[in-house]
Design goal:
Keywords: Signal. By secondary structure, this protein is of the alpha+beta class. It has a domain at about 35-45 and about 70-169. It has three helices and eight strands. Strands 1-2-3-4 form a four-stranded antiparallel sheet.
Length: about 170
Amino acid sequence: MQLRTALLAAALITGPAALAKAVTPADTILPPTVIFATSTGYWEESRADIAIERAPGAASDPAKAEPQPRHGYYKLFSVRQPDKTSKIYLQQIAQADSGPEIVSSVELHEFTQLKPYVTDIRPESSTGMGKQPGLFATVYLKTDPNAESEGWTVLIDEFGEITIEKATN
C-alpha cells in the first residue's frame, strides 16, 4: 500500500511537469511588442460593395453566384518600437463561419508622426461588438516620456471614414 501511495504521489508531482510544453518563439500567439490592443466597433458590407466575377461560360447558379455581405469589428493596437515609441495599427476583422479573418491592416500614420509613447488604448464601451457601424476608441499617449498622457480619439463613421484628433473634454 505504501508503494502504491508513493507511486501515486510521484505521478502527481512529475505528471504536470511531463505534460507541460515550453512555448517556443515560433509558438508565440501575441508578440511581446504588442503592448495595448482593443477590439471594438462594428462594420458591414453592403451588397453594392461586393464585386461578382464569373468565369466565362460558367453556369449561373443563383445560390452560388450571390456572395453574402461580410460584417465584423475593428482591432486597434500599438506595437512598441526599438526606441520605445509605438506605431498604432487598425485592423478590420470579419466574423466568418470558420472564425475571425483579417480583412485589412493599416498603420495610422497620424500617430507615427507624433513618435508616441502609448500608455493605454480603450474602447468607448466594454459591452462587446456594437450593432451600429463605426468605431470610437481613445489612445492615451505621451510625446515626451516625462509628460502626462493625453487622450487622442480614433473615430470611424458609418461610411468608413477615419478621423484621428486630440480628445477634448
